[in-house]
Design brief:
It is a single chain. The protein starts with 5 loop residues before the first helix and ends with a helix. α4 packs antiparallel against α5, α9 packs antiparallel against α10 and α14 packs antiparallel against α15. By secondary structure, the chain is mostly helical. It contains 20 helices and no strands.
């Protein structure tokens, strides 16, 4: 008896180590999603960049991350979770070093896109490794909760950590710190993380992936460059037309494809469609809020990067507190209460910030920051629950992955749209002062309020009886057409692990 006891203990220790490595990787991804917002003014001065250039620095990361999350899950299922996870660390760390050395905005945009490829390779494989390490249902649920918190904590603390680095040793160290951490995590992955792959991996859909990427990039280019180059510019018009053609071609292809990147039948479920739109609106508001707040706090309020980062702490605190609260509310009362509360909080935050943009008082600003932290913290648990509502276990993994992917798309579009509004407001000002900047930033806050109102409205609509009926009918489409459902159920955990990365 004594001889056999160390083996389970060793297995439990290894499982905890796998979870720690996975959470740290997701923490890095979350930090780099939000950290650069505080560094924007310093980068703007150092690289002589425009507002448009700063938008591209942020959105090159967001676009690639949103575009390649689903492909990363399928690739890891096919070629091995540990192998792709390890490649993610090496690519993320190497690209971070290139970002730190970037001599101009154009180089930084390209290196950020490369960094995002590494970030995409860290997400789905890490969840697959966690679900393999914790096969028991209750322990797996707790482990996935911890895994999710690593990403959320990174997003929330990114501005604070960035403010400390930018204010002391410079913005390039926001990237340099990733390099030794990635090397250590890669070494730990090689030594301690076991190999695994899905028993029945989904086939890759490179054509669908290419069309999604083309749509996102050209749409974002249109929104960012339209106010700068003019909406009748040949380049802007060409990108707008390309975006329309890409989305139409994607829809036509996915209907015919045997193993589509995104099964369009999911969108027959109104809760699923609503969950994707709620995630998009929430993170559009959050991305636009962070982009605007960083410039506003430092250019209008005159705060240092460190003080601006510290002022973001209420957002981080509310994100950390409200996630578990949302999960508890959903389990007791369903998804409507947390979603309605989230929408109301985001809308009220935008309203307060719009009305107090020219005020010197600090209390309205803190109130707005607290509210948007509450709103974004409440959204993810009910959104994930709605996305898989009525779905079989065989389909739940892919369904759960699409809603967070919509959130990443929303983040990119939020930066693009709100940044474009800000750039248009500043376009005719030769030397915009603090008061002029405050006036130019007010429409951005109204957009945040509008996104919150949309979340509130959808939070009511997706929880109606009619909406739930559409979810059940959609779930039956897959069950009735599936053969070997029990075999699919046996690897359903792998499907979730391979595709469902928040």
């Amino acid at each position: 008896m004594h001889a056999s006891s160390p083996e389970p203990a060793d297995g439990a220790a290894r499982a905890r180590l796998v979870l720690a490595i996975s959470c740290t990787g997701l923490f890095l991804v979350g930090v780099d999603l939000t950290a650069l917002n505080i560094a924007l003014p310093a980068m703007e001065r150092d690289l002589a960049a425009s507002v448009t250039g700063m938008q591209w620095v942020l959105d090159s990361y967001n676009l690639v991350l949103a575009s390649f999350m689903l492909l990363a899950g399928s690739t890891a299922d096919r070629f091995g979770h540990r192998r792709i996870f390890l490649c993610g660390f090496m690519l993320f760390g190497g690209a971070s070093a290139l970002c730190a050395l970037a001599p101009a905005t154009e180089y930084l945009v390209a290196f950020r896109a490369l960094q995002a490829l590494g970030a995409a390779a860290l997400g789905p494989p890490s969840l697959a490794l966690v679900t393999r390490a914790f096969p028991d249902g209750e322990r797996r649920s707790r482990a996935i909760g911890v895994w999710t918190s690593g990403y959320g904590l990174g997003m929330a603390l990114g501005p604070v950590l960035s403010g400390a680095l930018v204010g002391s040793i410079g913005w390039r160290w926001v990237f340099w710190v990733n390099v030794p951490v990635c090397l250590l995590l890669a070494a730990a992955t090689c030594r301690r993380v076991p190999r695994s792959r899905a028993e029945a991996p989904r086939r890759l859909d490179p054509a669908g992936q290419l069309l999604v990427t083309a749509f996102l990039v050209t749409l974002t280019y249109t929104v960012i460059e339209g106010p700068h180059q003019g909406w009748d510019s040949p380049a802007v018009l060409a990108c707008a037309v390309t975006a329309l053609v890409a989305v139409a071609a994607f829809a036509a292809r996915e209907r015919r494809c045997a193993a589509p990147l995104i099964d369009l039948r999911f969108f027959r479920s109104f809760p699923f469609t609503g969950a994707a739109v709620i995630a998009l609106c929430t993170y559009a508001a959050y991305g636009g809020f962070l982009f605007t707040s960083a410039l506003y706090l430092q250019n209008v309020r005159g705060l240092s990067p460190l003080h601006a980062g510290l002022l973001m702490l209420p957002v981080a605190a509310m994100n950390a507190v409200c996630g578990p609260v949302a999960g508890h509310l959903e389990s007791k009362m369903g998804p409507r209460p947390p979603l309605v509360a989230a929408g109301a909080a985001i809308a009220l935050s935008g309203l307060i910030l719009a009305l107090s943009a020219s005020s010197t008082a600090l209390s309205p600003l803190l109130g707005g920051f607290l509210l948007i932290g509450i709103g974004t913290g409440l959204v993810l648990p009910p959104v994930l629950g709605l996305a898989v509502s009525g779905m079989s276990r065989a389909q739940a993994g892919l369904a759960a992955a699409i809603a967070p992917t919509g959130g990443r798309m929303g983040y990119a579009l939020g930066v693009a749209v709100i940044g474009a509004v800000l750039a248009a407001g500043l376009h005719n000002m030769t030397h915009p002062g603090a008061a002029a900047f405050a006036r130019a930033v007010r429409p951005a806050w109204w957009i945040v309020a509008g996104c919150g109102a949309m979340v509130l409205l959808l939070g009511v609509l997706v929880t109606t009886r009619w909406a739930q009926d559409t979810a059940r009918r959609t779930g039956r489409l897959f069950v009735e057409g599936a053969e070997g459902a029990e075999a699919e159920d046996s690897v359903a955990g792998d499907g979730v692990a391979g595709d469902g990365a928040a």
